[in-house]
Design a protein that fits this description.
Its cofactor is pyridoxal 5'-phosphate. It comes from Candidatus Opimibacter skivensis. It is an enzyme of class 2 (transferase). Belongs to the class-V pyridoxal-phosphate-dependent aminotransferase family. NifS/IscS subfamily. It catalyses: (sulfur carrier)-H + L-cysteine = (sulfur carrier)-SH + L-alanine. The chain has 383 residues and is an alpha/beta fold. The protein folds into two domains: 5-13 and 259-375, Aspartate Aminotransferase, domain 1 (Alpha-Beta Complex); 17-257, Type I PLP-dependent aspartate aminotransferase-like (Major domain) (Aspartate Aminotransferase, domain 2), CATH 3.40.640.10. It is 37% helix and 15% strand. The chain contains eleven helices and 15 strands. The strands form four sheets. The protein has a seven-stranded mixed β-sheet, sandwiched between helices. Strand 5 (144-147), helix 6 and strand 6 (174-177) form a beta-alpha-beta unit. Helix 1 packs antiparallel against helix 7 and helix 2 (39-59) packs parallel to helix 7 (242-257). The longest helix is centred in the last third of the chain and has 22 residues, at 259-280. It is globular, with a radius of gyration of 22 Å. The chain binds pyridoxal-5'-phosphate.
């Protein structure tokens, strides 16, 4: 097989070996059901509660405010839908650039006539206009939930969560922020930054897939999202994903312990790729905020050219895993709602490259070499 370079870490990251190591005993010998009262159950229950403590400590929450879920999608659905069903929310303020799991949750509530929805204006980087947000908040339009993502998964642009939380607080609005792309990559402290709901997904910070968490501020009294047994203190029924929970906590602990080092390395990689692309691809543009941005994401826009029309597929053939700003179902790529919302020209081709702690300059050299090959009219397959 030819060389492959993985530059799609905003989609998912590889599992760290240290994380796998702590998960293994819970896939083998320690398999007791945490709800069982015997010793095998008590062992796994204690491991889950230790993990909860780790997660809570890392974001300045109390353990009673952390609930494990199946990932970012479930956490975001839970926050938005429970805010409406249990907190009396009748208006949602959101943006046109949210992740599908937020967008579709809001659309679902709208279709059921459960809420009124206001869209805050966004700028060319996909970031909300705070003046417009304040004017929306200032109109008394019922109990309000603001749901705005901390960092945009396609563009990388990051909003000022502190400013957002203070604004929501000023107007008495509940605040949910989709922090799936920032947990494990940026410090978050819910004591300093008063939010009501945030979400995390372990597979975005080198943990296992299918496990995440939701932070719910203790002032939000919501009812169970999934009915059944009394797991997760009655909030989310079903036998726990024990090895996932153990892996999530370990991955998050490592991510925060090594954050500065990883950030410096990945920032360097992002800048290096940007410089290389500017030097080799005439007419290339960059989407997303130039400084207020995820260091893991570089979203580029190739100029109109027959060679770039199916760029993500060409890159794949050339050994590079990257992502288009698109839902690609039949081989034909359609423009994403995020790029459409920022007015990205439909004749240019967007590609999201996203990096990890494992990405090297050599990976970037290879990727840029393959990209120039594609632009020159031929895909370079290396064996
Ligand atoms: C910003 C954002 N929100 C939510 C999700 C969904 O997370 P999960 O895949 O864990 O359900 C993702 C993952 O793609 C994301 O990037």
């Amino acid at each position: 097989m030819g060389r492959r370079v993985y530059l799609d870490n905003a989609a998912t990251t590889p599992l760290r070996p240290e994380v796998l190591e702590v998960m293994m005993p819970f896939l083998t010998g320690q398999f007791g059901n945490p709800s069982s009262i015997h010793q095998d159950g008590r062992t796994t229950r204690a491991a889950i509660e230790n993990s909860r403590k780790t997660v809570a400590n890392l974001i300045g929450a109390s353990t009673g405010e952390i609930f494990f879920t199946s990932g970012g999608t479930e956490s975001n659905n839970m926050a938005i839908k429970c805010a409406v069903s249990d907190l009396g929310v009748t208006r949602i303020i959101t943006s046109p650039a949210e992740h599908h799991c937020v967008k579709h949750s809001v659309e679902h509530l709208l279709a059921k006539n459960a809420v009124h929805v206001d869209f805050v204006k966004i700028d060319k980087y996909g970031l909300p206009d705070f003046n417009h947000l304040e004017s929306l908040l200032a109109t008394d339009n019922g109990k309000t939930l603001v749901t705005l993502m901390h960092a945009n998964n396609e563009l990388g642009s990051m909003l000022d969560l502190q400013r957002l939380s203070e604004l929501c607080h000023k107007y008495g609005a509940w605040l949910h922020s989709d922090t799936v792309q920032t947990v494990g990559h940026f410090p978050i402290n819910v004591k300093q930054t008063p939010v009501d709901f945030i979400s995390g997904a372990s597979h975005k910070f080198y943990g296992p897939k299918g496990i995440g968490f939701i932070y719910i501020n203790s002032r939000c009294h919501i009812h169970p999202y999934i009915d059944g047994g009394s797991q997760e203190r009655n909030m989310r029924a079903g036998t726990e994903n024990i090895c996932g929970i153990i892996g999530l906590a370990k991955a998050m602990q490592l991510a925060y312990a090594e954050l500065e080092e990883d950030k410096a390395h990945i920032n360097g990689i992002k800048q290096y790729m940007k410089d290389q692309l500017i030097a080799t691809c005439p007419g290339i543009l960059f989407n997303g905020h130039p400084s207020e941005s995820l260091y893991t994401v570089l979203n580029v826009s190739f100029p109109p050219d027959p060679q770039t029309e199916l760029m993500v597929m060409s890159l794949d053939i050339a050994g590079i895993s990257a992502s288009g700003g698109s839902a690609c179902s039949s081989g034909a790529e359609s423009q994403s709602h995020v790029l459409e919302a920022i007015g990205h020209p439909s004749d240019r081709t967007p590609v999201r490259f996203s990096f990890s702690r494992n990405t090297t300059k050599d990976d970037i050299d290879f990727a840029v070499h393959q990209i120039s090959g594609i632009l020159a009219g031929g895909v370079h397959v290396t064996v």
